[in-house]
Write a structure and sequence with these properties.
The protein is mainly α and 247 residues long. It is built from eight helices and no strands.
């Protein structure tokens, strides 16, 4: 009976580690996508140090889970106590790090609100000044997502104009409609846009556009993170039971 129980534990351990392996691969792929994504999400991440750090933490965690899932599978199948102990200690460290990251994300969630981005935009945005990283990033985001400001063009009413701009009223150039949503895309009617004709402007705020674009991915990432934490917890339990059962 004890041998059957140990064999069952071994294969359960292998199964959970296989899921950790897959979870690590998913996190690794998601981290790489966030960092190299050409559609503009990278610009948002780069503009916020908290998101930038989080993307690289996710990348590192994915790589470590990928490796540890592989080691756990090997340790379970070969019944190697050294590998199992190594696996348990490192998966415990990763579990605690992920739990800490989740707590920090919850604590600093107010930094991702509409009000926070609106305040930062009005404080730091310098319109078409592409030498300023904040302004350049916002311009790239607005062009890529065909949106304007956080809530809409009204966000720019209190922002000073550039001295050499004779046409621009309140709407920056990045809010003007283009035939192709990229910096190389031709304006539909730049002069009309800058003089305030709404039908040549992107009127929707970027906060809503981006939230709608990535809402599915946010819930998917959250569900994946919860699933990975649960699998890690069970894997640690099985690893210790298998460690104690191996003679």
């Amino acid at each position: 009976m004890e041998g059957d129980c140990l064999s069952c534990m071994k294969y359960l351990m292998f199964l959970f580690n296989f899921f950790i392996f897959l979870g690590g691969a998913c996190l690794l792929g998601l981290g790489i996508w966030v960092i190299v994504d050409p559609t503009g999400f990278r610009e948002i991440v780069a503009a916020n140090p908290l998101l930038f750090t989080g993307a690289y933490i996710m990348l590192a965690m994915g790589a470590m889970l990928f490796l540890l899932g592989f080691l756990g599978c090997c340790g379970a199948i070969r019944e190697n106590k050294c590998l199992l102990l190594f696996f348990f200690m490192f998966i415990l460290l990763i579990f605690l790090a992920e739990l800490s990251a989740a707590i920090l994300a919850f604590i600093f969630r107010e930094n991702l609100t509409r009000e926070f981005f609106t305040k930062e935009l009005k404080k730091h945005y310098q319109r078409n000044n592409d030498t300023d990283i904040f302004s350049s990033t916002w311009n790239s985001v607005m062009i890529t997502f065909a949106c304007c400001g956080v809530n809409g063009p009204e966000d720019f009413e209190a922002i000073p104009h550039l001295p050499h701009s004779s046409l621009e009223k309140t709407t920056p150039e990045a809010c003007c409609q283009r035939e192709l949503q990229s910096r190389e895309g031709m304006f539909i009617n730049k002069e009309a846009c800058l003089t305030g004709i709404e039908r040549f402007q992107n009127r929707q705020g970027c906060y809503t556009v981006i939230l709608n674009s990535f809402e599915t991915y946010v819930y998917l990432a959250g569900a994946l993170a919860i699933g990975v934490l649960a699998i890690e917890l069970f894997a640690m339990i099985f690893a210790m039971c298998l460690f104690r059962g191996i003679q």
